[in-house]
Description:
This protein is of the alpha+beta class. The protein contains one helix and two strands. The protein has a domain of about 35 residues.
Amino acid sequence: MLILRLVLLIVYYWSLKIMAQQKPITMVTLGRPFHLGMLYDVRSDKIITGATLWDPQN
């Protein structure tokens, strides 16, 4: 059990280190109706409609 916890701790530390090195993606929307809080699928280069991170009315 101790070995499993140690492995999980190492993986957690490694993932935090990787995330700290990543930079945000900046791209032009090229006329697409994109608003703050909308979701975007980078694999298909499409905006995910019908879902936002928060209510756009607030």
